[in-house]
Task: structure prediction
Amino acid sequence: MPRLTFLGTGTSNGVPIIGCSCEVCRSEDPRDKRTRSSAFVEWGDRIYLIDTATELRAQALRSGLSRVDAVLMTHPHADHTGGFDDLRRFNELVQAWLPVWADPGTASLLRERYAYTFTETFPFFGGKPDLILNEIDGPIAPFEHEIVPITVMHGRLPITAYRFGSLAYVTDAKTIPAESMDQLRGVDTLVLNSLRSAPHPTHLSIEEALAVIAELQPRQAFLTHLSHEVSHDRESRSLPEGVTIAHDGLVVESPG
Result:
Protein backbone atom coordinates (compact mmCIF):
# COMPACT_ATOMS: atom_id res chain seq x y z
CA MET A 1 0.00 0.00 0.00
CA PRO A 2 1.24 3.53 -0.68
CA ARG A 3 2.43 5.44 2.36
CA LEU A 4 2.90 9.22 2.24
CA THR A 5 5.02 11.36 4.53
CA PHE A 6 4.38 15.09 4.56
CA LEU A 7 7.80 16.76 4.48
CA GLY A 8 6.26 20.24 4.40
CA THR A 9 2.70 21.56 4.49
CA GLY A 10 3.15 25.33 4.21
CA THR A 11 2.55 27.81 1.44
CA SER A 12 5.28 29.78 -0.36
CA ASN A 13 6.20 31.91 2.69
CA GLY A 14 6.26 29.01 5.13
CA VAL A 15 4.84 29.44 8.63
CA PRO A 16 5.73 31.45 10.63
CA ILE A 17 6.31 34.12 8.02
CA ILE A 18 8.93 36.83 8.29
CA GLY A 19 7.88 39.88 10.29
CA CYS A 20 4.49 38.58 11.41
CA SER A 21 3.16 38.40 14.97
CA CYS A 22 -0.26 36.88 14.26
CA GLU A 23 -1.74 34.13 16.42
CA VAL A 24 -0.55 31.30 14.16
CA CYS A 25 2.94 32.70 13.60
CA ARG A 26 3.33 32.98 17.40
CA SER A 27 1.72 29.59 18.04
CA GLU A 28 3.55 27.08 20.24
CA ASP A 29 1.69 24.19 18.59
CA PRO A 30 4.34 22.38 16.50
CA ARG A 31 1.66 21.56 13.93
CA ASP A 32 1.52 25.27 13.08
CA LYS A 33 5.21 25.29 12.09
CA ARG A 34 5.08 24.64 8.34
CA THR A 35 7.94 24.37 5.88
CA ARG A 36 7.29 24.65 2.13
CA SER A 37 5.13 21.88 0.65
CA SER A 38 6.72 18.60 -0.34
CA ALA A 39 6.17 14.91 0.40
CA PHE A 40 7.46 11.46 -0.35
CA VAL A 41 5.55 8.29 -1.14
CA GLU A 42 6.76 4.81 -0.27
CA TRP A 43 5.16 2.29 -2.61
CA GLY A 44 6.47 -1.23 -2.66
CA ASP A 45 10.24 -1.02 -2.44
CA ARG A 46 10.43 2.42 -4.05
CA ILE A 47 10.50 5.97 -2.70
CA TYR A 48 9.08 8.80 -4.80
CA LEU A 49 9.88 12.37 -3.78
CA ILE A 50 7.22 14.93 -4.76
CA ASP A 51 8.86 18.33 -5.31
CA THR A 52 12.09 19.68 -3.87
CA ALA A 53 10.94 22.30 -1.39
CA THR A 54 13.24 25.08 -0.26
CA GLU A 55 13.90 23.30 3.06
CA LEU A 56 14.51 19.85 1.51
CA ARG A 57 17.74 19.25 3.44
CA ALA A 58 16.14 20.01 6.80
CA GLN A 59 13.00 18.06 5.89
CA ALA A 60 15.02 14.99 4.94
CA LEU A 61 17.02 15.13 8.16
CA ARG A 62 13.87 15.46 10.28
CA SER A 63 12.04 12.60 8.55
CA GLY A 64 15.01 10.27 8.18
CA LEU A 65 14.75 10.30 4.39
CA SER A 66 18.00 8.81 3.11
CA ARG A 67 17.02 7.35 -0.26
CA VAL A 68 15.05 8.61 -3.24
CA ASP A 69 14.38 6.44 -6.30
CA ALA A 70 12.57 9.04 -8.44
CA VAL A 71 11.57 12.69 -8.20
CA LEU A 72 8.14 13.88 -9.37
CA MET A 73 7.80 17.63 -9.93
CA THR A 74 4.41 19.33 -9.79
CA HIS A 75 5.40 22.72 -11.25
CA PRO A 76 8.33 25.15 -11.41
CA HIS A 77 7.50 27.69 -8.67
CA ALA A 78 10.39 28.45 -6.33
CA ASP A 79 8.81 27.04 -3.17
CA HIS A 80 8.53 23.66 -4.92
CA THR A 81 11.96 23.68 -6.61
CA GLY A 82 14.19 25.64 -4.21
CA GLY A 83 15.84 22.53 -2.77
CA PHE A 84 16.73 21.07 -6.17
CA ASP A 85 20.49 21.16 -5.55
CA ASP A 86 20.07 19.05 -2.39
CA LEU A 87 19.26 16.07 -4.62
CA ARG A 88 23.00 15.60 -5.03
CA ARG A 89 23.19 13.93 -1.62
CA PHE A 90 20.79 11.22 -2.80
CA ASN A 91 23.05 10.64 -5.82
CA GLU A 92 25.95 10.23 -3.45
CA LEU A 93 24.10 7.82 -1.17
CA VAL A 94 23.05 5.45 -3.97
CA GLN A 95 26.00 6.12 -6.30
CA ALA A 96 23.72 6.43 -9.30
CA TRP A 97 21.90 8.89 -11.53
CA LEU A 98 18.46 9.97 -10.30
CA PRO A 99 15.43 10.19 -12.63
CA VAL A 100 13.21 13.28 -12.49
CA TRP A 101 9.74 13.50 -14.05
CA ALA A 102 8.03 16.77 -15.01
CA ASP A 103 5.51 18.12 -17.50
CA PRO A 104 7.10 19.74 -20.59
CA GLY A 105 6.73 23.32 -19.33
CA THR A 106 8.28 22.53 -15.96
CA ALA A 107 11.02 20.46 -17.61
CA SER A 108 11.96 23.40 -19.84
CA LEU A 109 12.33 25.75 -16.87
CA LEU A 110 14.31 23.18 -14.88
CA ARG A 111 16.75 22.84 -17.79
CA GLU A 112 17.14 26.61 -17.82
CA ARG A 113 17.59 27.13 -14.07
CA TYR A 114 19.53 23.96 -13.25
CA ALA A 115 21.35 23.19 -16.48
CA TYR A 116 24.41 21.91 -14.64
CA THR A 117 22.38 19.08 -13.09
CA PHE A 118 21.61 17.61 -16.52
CA THR A 119 24.61 18.50 -18.69
CA GLU A 120 27.84 18.49 -16.71
CA THR A 121 29.46 15.25 -15.60
CA PHE A 122 31.79 14.78 -12.65
CA PRO A 123 33.88 11.61 -12.16
CA PHE A 124 32.08 11.02 -8.84
CA PHE A 125 28.59 11.34 -7.36
CA GLY A 126 27.73 13.98 -4.78
CA GLY A 127 29.52 17.09 -6.07
CA LYS A 128 26.33 18.15 -7.83
CA PRO A 129 23.00 16.58 -8.70
CA ASP A 130 23.27 14.03 -11.52
CA LEU A 131 19.76 13.86 -12.93
CA ILE A 132 17.95 12.30 -15.87
CA LEU A 133 15.00 14.50 -16.88
CA ASN A 134 11.92 12.76 -18.29
CA GLU A 135 8.98 14.67 -19.78
CA ILE A 136 5.50 13.47 -18.86
CA ASP A 137 3.12 12.73 -21.73
CA GLY A 138 0.83 10.22 -20.03
CA PRO A 139 0.95 7.63 -17.22
CA ILE A 140 4.48 6.87 -16.09
CA ALA A 141 6.05 3.73 -14.67
CA PRO A 142 9.51 4.56 -13.35
CA PHE A 143 9.53 1.13 -11.71
CA GLU A 144 6.92 -1.59 -11.08
CA HIS A 145 3.92 0.65 -10.39
CA GLU A 146 2.07 2.93 -12.78
CA ILE A 147 1.68 6.53 -11.58
CA VAL A 148 -1.04 8.65 -13.16
CA PRO A 149 -0.26 12.37 -13.72
CA ILE A 150 -3.36 14.57 -13.43
CA THR A 151 -3.54 18.17 -14.60
CA VAL A 152 -5.07 20.80 -12.31
CA MET A 153 -5.01 24.56 -12.74
CA HIS A 154 -3.16 27.04 -10.51
CA GLY A 155 -4.81 30.13 -11.97
CA ARG A 156 -3.60 29.95 -15.58
CA LEU A 157 -0.67 27.62 -14.82
CA PRO A 158 -1.13 23.87 -15.27
CA ILE A 159 0.05 21.82 -12.30
CA THR A 160 0.74 18.09 -12.25
CA ALA A 161 -0.98 16.14 -9.50
CA TYR A 162 -0.13 12.45 -9.05
CA ARG A 163 -2.18 9.34 -8.33
CA PHE A 164 -0.43 6.37 -6.75
CA GLY A 165 -3.09 3.66 -6.92
CA SER A 166 -5.50 4.51 -4.12
CA LEU A 167 -3.67 7.70 -3.07
CA ALA A 168 -3.64 11.06 -4.84
CA TYR A 169 -1.54 14.15 -4.12
CA VAL A 170 -2.89 17.46 -5.43
CA THR A 171 -1.17 20.76 -4.68
CA ASP A 172 -1.52 24.38 -5.81
CA ALA A 173 -4.90 23.84 -7.46
CA LYS A 174 -7.55 26.51 -7.90
CA THR A 175 -9.69 24.56 -10.35
CA ILE A 176 -9.80 20.89 -11.31
CA PRO A 177 -11.07 20.19 -14.84
CA ALA A 178 -13.88 17.65 -15.23
CA GLU A 179 -11.62 15.06 -16.86
CA SER A 180 -9.16 15.41 -14.01
CA MET A 181 -11.93 14.95 -11.46
CA ASP A 182 -12.78 11.72 -13.26
CA GLN A 183 -9.16 10.58 -12.88
CA LEU A 184 -9.40 11.23 -9.14
CA ARG A 185 -12.61 9.30 -8.59
CA GLY A 186 -12.31 6.18 -6.47
CA VAL A 187 -9.27 7.31 -4.47
CA ASP A 188 -9.17 6.14 -0.88
CA THR A 189 -6.81 8.89 0.29
CA LEU A 190 -6.76 12.41 -1.12
CA VAL A 191 -4.20 15.10 -0.32
CA LEU A 192 -5.45 18.50 -1.45
CA ASN A 193 -4.18 22.05 -1.12
CA SER A 194 -6.27 24.48 0.93
CA LEU A 195 -4.66 27.87 1.45
CA ARG A 196 -7.04 29.60 3.89
CA SER A 197 -10.70 30.31 4.61
CA ALA A 198 -10.94 33.42 2.40
CA PRO A 199 -11.06 32.96 -1.39
CA HIS A 200 -7.80 33.30 -3.33
CA PRO A 201 -7.34 33.81 -7.10
CA THR A 202 -4.95 30.86 -7.62
CA HIS A 203 -5.46 28.49 -4.67
CA LEU A 204 -8.40 26.53 -3.31
CA SER A 205 -9.90 27.90 -0.12
CA ILE A 206 -10.94 25.54 2.66
CA GLU A 207 -14.57 25.74 1.52
CA GLU A 208 -13.62 25.04 -2.09
CA ALA A 209 -11.39 22.13 -1.08
CA LEU A 210 -14.19 20.64 1.01
CA ALA A 211 -16.50 20.85 -2.00
CA VAL A 212 -14.02 18.83 -4.07
CA ILE A 213 -13.70 16.29 -1.26
CA ALA A 214 -17.49 16.03 -0.94
CA GLU A 215 -17.78 15.21 -4.64
CA LEU A 216 -14.94 12.67 -4.73
CA GLN A 217 -15.82 11.12 -1.34
CA PRO A 218 -12.45 9.59 -0.42
CA ARG A 219 -12.31 7.64 2.82
CA GLN A 220 -9.77 10.12 4.17
CA ALA A 221 -8.59 13.53 3.00
CA PHE A 222 -5.73 15.75 4.15
CA LEU A 223 -5.43 19.50 3.60
CA THR A 224 -1.98 20.90 2.82
CA HIS A 225 -0.21 23.99 1.38
CA LEU A 226 -1.60 26.03 4.28
CA SER A 227 -0.99 29.70 5.05
CA HIS A 228 -0.51 31.41 8.41
CA GLU A 229 -4.23 32.21 8.37
CA VAL A 230 -4.95 28.55 9.20
CA SER A 231 -4.70 27.50 12.84
CA HIS A 232 -4.33 23.73 13.06
CA ASP A 233 -6.36 23.48 16.24
CA ARG A 234 -9.08 25.95 15.29
CA GLU A 235 -9.70 24.72 11.75
CA SER A 236 -9.54 21.06 12.77
CA ARG A 237 -12.54 21.53 15.04
CA SER A 238 -14.75 22.65 12.15
CA LEU A 239 -13.85 20.02 9.55
CA PRO A 240 -16.18 17.16 8.57
CA GLU A 241 -15.38 13.61 9.60
CA GLY A 242 -12.57 12.07 7.57
CA VAL A 243 -10.88 15.40 6.73
CA THR A 244 -7.67 16.32 8.53
CA ILE A 245 -5.37 19.33 8.54
CA ALA A 246 -1.98 17.88 7.62
CA HIS A 247 1.21 18.88 9.42
CA ASP A 248 4.90 18.51 8.75
CA GLY A 249 6.03 14.97 9.54
CA LEU A 250 2.55 13.39 9.36
CA VAL A 251 2.53 9.87 7.86
CA VAL A 252 -0.58 8.42 6.21
CA GLU A 253 -1.26 5.05 4.60
CA SER A 254 -3.70 4.13 1.87
CA PRO A 255 -4.72 0.54 1.06
CA GLY A 256 -4.41 -0.74 -2.47
